[in-house]
UniProtKB/TrEMBL annotation:
Species of provenance: Otus sunia
Organism domain of life: Eukaryota
Keyword Zinc belongs to the record: yes
Family per record: In the C-terminal section; belongs to the ROK (NagC/XylR) family.
The protein's assembly and partners: Homodimer. Homotetramer. Homohexamer. The hexameric form exhibits both enzyme activities, whereas the dimeric form only catalyzes the phosphorylation of N-acyl-D-mannosamine.
Pathway terms, separated by semicolons: Amino-sugar metabolism; N-acetylneuraminate biosynthesis
Documented EC number(s): 2.7.1.60, 3.2.1.183
Any coiled-coil regions, as ranges: none
Name the UniProt record assigns to this protein: Bifunctional UDP-N-acetylglucosamine 2-epimerase/N-acetylmannosamine kinase
Alphabetized InterPro entries for the sequence: ATPase_NBD, ROK, UDP-GlcNAc_Epase, UDP_GlcNAc_Epimerase_2_dom
GO BP of this protein: UDP-N-acetylglucosamine metabolic process
Length: 750
């Protein structure tokens, strides 16, 4: 088996961090004052948060030229029943500046509230004496909420570790409350980062670093793990042949969590494997859980070892070599994944956490048999190691982030809300109104505005020819939007915002059209958000028409509930949108999903983009119109059953009609166009591997069979099962523009 050690000994830790590459942040030091070191206060409340904070503390201590470290210890660290875990901080050679006894015993809901209050009473004096530049707070415990509240009210900058994560119980609410108080954020996963952005936190103050504990988990070794296993579990125990159990009360449903703990112990007794059971944390309900342990005789049972605390470096080796870990500790779904140890996660306490394949969830155990069955499934397995929560380089990133903090920046934090001018007060009329969006579609020919309800119903629609100049176009957009907003009152609709679908490349974050297609003149570097938001006093979202079509399908069409799909618009041009893992892909320069410009032939016809052989040069309405004109000029278009007036303009519709009536040349052109589109779809399948392709637009029904044929002939066998369907949405551009508003205002991440 593999040998692991996952926490440095004191001397090794200091040596490691002293050897970290130094990032000399001279310009920031100059801003903060040439001789000013950043005074950092790290406050730790319990054994769990210290395992995450210790690596950062070692890193800070190793760079005295940049930092001064003050350590404050409070919470269950100082309680004998929970192991007096402050001693491990002293053993790591950290000077504890202040010890605060803040826990009110009782282990119930009232005691938790009183403990927060006691901490709030004691912390101001400590912070007044320390005067830190920044306080580092970890996680989601009630003690941490008291720390963040005190620091925020005393104008001390807060760096919050592990914000943005999702789990069960009251911890979620506390974690997100601390996020709103904190000035800077260090998160562990990409999803957590996106959650923080969705919570309107400033992206520039969010660092995706990974979990600090992983720096030690992934970088140290110890061959003497067997002595640790024997010390805690007995001389006769072998690796992968014992269980570690760690279960805490769920504060929002204490009665159920105690019942779950009883069932867990019954299952472990029946399973008859040596088990190390750790006492629960100090949360409300822990006293009742300890009573359950004693009632079942766990402390004296020959197969069990019940302990209050195991030092983290030893604990992590115990779980690394265990046959299984069971319980509801975050350690099970986070750190243990680094070793591939099987985990059984019980109940709702970690619901929403990202987990590796080593975790089996038992959400609601109504009998012990369910847990016992899970033990039989998991015990003794070895899963691939997971690095969801870190790559071993979190601390260097965090130290660099700390050095970049400019203390001369305003202390007041800012939230990144969508722009909105005057809020509308809530009254009964608003409650009775239908929540709706103003949707704007800027096409090459027409400019359309519609009132769209939450269910996707187009309540009212306005259409005008799209003006040729920027000034006229913007004036008409404002006029039509104002008219529609006024009419919304008469049709009992409450407008939540304005969504705009337009051709060209769009920066949706800023609401700016960066570059337009040739179909819309004078439409580059155009800020649409500001003038429309100013005029209507509503938030405004802007995106490319292809992306909007994909959003329409995701909310109202075939893409609803589909994780990965692609939408292709077949109209005047060819566009599209890509939805991956339920989210729209914009790309690094907002140029993703320009599907019409996939090249399918090196010497094909010239495209409007300037290239040759693009899908759009074969299969767009403009391309078909071009070929129809060629046939008409050679008198090869019209067949029996067709007629055209002299003033009538030749269009793609005439080519399609001719093909249906037996014109072989028109039919050949349509087949070539369908093949070009099909080849483009095959390229998309090989790149993105979606489960669904949606063809949208006026030409979709004419191409769908050709696309399916090309996939069957040209695609790899692993992607041939993809579904190709024609959109059933009557107006995807307007519905997509509306979904920009409706998804955001109903708190969907976008």
């Amino acid at each position: 088996g593999k040998n692991f050690i996952f926490l440095f000994r004191e001397s090794d830790s200091e040596l490691y961090f002293k050897n970290l590459s130094k990032q000399k942040q001279k310009e920031v030091m100059e801003k903060n004052g040439n001789n000013h070191k950043l005074r950092v206060c790290v406050a730790t409340c319990n054994r769990a948060d210290y395992s995450k904070l210790a690596p950062i503390m070692f890193g800070i201590k190793a760079e005295p030229q940049f930092f001064e470290l003050d350590v404050v210890v409070l919470g269950s660290h100082l309680i004998d029943d929970y192991g007096n875990t402050y001693r491990m901080i002293e053993q790591d050679d950290f000077d504890i500046h202040t010890r605060l006894h803040t826990i009110v015993r009782g282990e119930d809901e009232a005691a938790m509230v009183e403990s927060v209050g006691l901490a709030l009473v004691k912390l101001p004096d400590v912070l007044n004496r320390l005067k830190p530049d920044i306080m580092i707070v970890h996680g989601d415990r009630f003690d941490a909420l008291a720390l963040a509240t005190s620091a925020a009210l005393m104008n001390i900058r807060i760096l919050h570790i592990e914000g943005g994560e999702v789990s069960g119980t009251i911890d979620d609410s506390i974690r997100h409350a601390i996020t709103k108080l904190a000035h800077y954020h260090v998160c562990c996963t990409r999803s957590a980062e996106q959650h923080l952005i969705a919570m309107c936190e400033d992206h520039d103050r969010i660092l995706l670093a990974g979990c600090p504990s992983y720096d030690k988990l992934l970088s140290a070794r110890n061959k003497d793990y067997m002595s640790i296993i024997r010390m805690w579990l007995g001389e006769d125990v072998k690796t992968r042949d014992y269980i570690v159990a760690l279960q805490h009360p769920v504060t929002t449903d204490i009665k159920h969590s105690i019942k779950m703990f009883e069932l867990t112990l019954d299952a472990l007794i029946s399973f008859k494997k040596r088990t190390l059971v750790l006492f629960p944390n100090v949360d409300a309900g822990s006293k009742e859980m300890v009573r359950v342990m004693r009632k079942k005789g766990i402390e004296h049972h020959p197969n069990f070892r019940a302990v209050k605390h195991v030092p983290f470096d030893q604990f992590i080796q115990l779980v690394a070599h265990a046959g299984c870990m069971i319980g509801n500790s975050s350690c099970g779904v986070r750190e243990v994944g680094a070793f591939g140890t099987p985990v059984i996660n019980l109940g709702t306490r970690q619901t929403g956490r990202e987990t590796g394949e080593n975790v089996l969830h038992v959400r609601d155990a109504d009998t012990q048999d369910k847990i016992l069955h899970a033990l039989h499934l998991q015990f003794g397995k070895q899963y691939p190691c997971s690095k969801i929560y870190g790559d071993g380089n979190a601390v260097p990133r965090i130290l660099k982030f700390l050095k970049s903090i400019d203390l001369k920046e305003p202390l007041q934090k800012k939230f990144c809300f969508p722009p909105v001018k005057d809020s509308i007060s809530q009254d009964i009329d608003h409650i009775l109104e239908t929540q709706s969006a103003l949707a704007v579609d800027l096409g090459g020919t027409n400019l359309r505005v519609a009132i769209v309800s939450m269910k996707g119903e187009i309540v009212k629609k306005y259409t005008q020819l799209n003006p040729k100049t920027y000034e006229d176009r913007l004036e008409l957009i404002l006029k039509m939007c104002i008219e529609a907003a006024s009419e919304a009152v008469n049709v009992n609709c409450r407008i939540l915002g304005v969504g705009i679908s337009t051709g060209g490349r769009v920066n949706p974050r800023e609401g700016i059209v960066l570059h337009s297609t040739k179909l819309i003149q004078e439409w580059s570097s155009v800020d649409l958000r500001t003038p429309i938001s100013d005029a209507l006093h509503l938030p405004v979202w802007v995106d490319n028409d292809g992306n909007c079509a994909a959003l329409a399908e995701r909310k109202f069409g075939h893409g609803k509930g589909i994780e990965n799909f692609v939408t292709l618009i077949t109209g005047t041009g060819i566009g599209g949108g890509i939805v991956h893992q339920h989210e729209l892909i914009h790309g690094s320069s907002f140029c993703a999903a320009e599907l019409g410009h996939i090249v399918v032939s090196l010497d094909g016809p010239e495209c409007l983009c300037g290239s040759q052989g693009c899908i759009e040069a074969y299969a767009s309405g403009i391309a078909l119109q071009r070929e129809a004109k060629k046939l008409h000029d050679e008198d090869l278009l019209l067949v029996e059953g067709m007629s055209m007036k002299k003033e009538e303009v030749v269009s793609a519709a005439h080519l399609i009609q001719a093909a249906k009536l037996g014109n072989t040349k028109a039919d050949s052109i349509l087949r070539t166009a369908g093949t070009a589109l099909g080849l483009g779809v095959v390229n998309i399948l090989h790149t993105m591997n979606p489960s669904l392709v949606i063809l949208s637009g006026v030409l979709a029904s004419h191409y769908v069979n050709a696309v399916k044929d090309v996939i069957n002939q040209q695609a790899l066998s692993s992607v041939k099962t993809v579904d190709v369907v024609v959109s059933n949405l009557a107006d995807p551009a307007l519905l997509g523009a509306a979904s920009l508003v409706l998804d955001y205002t109903t708190r969907r991440i976008y």
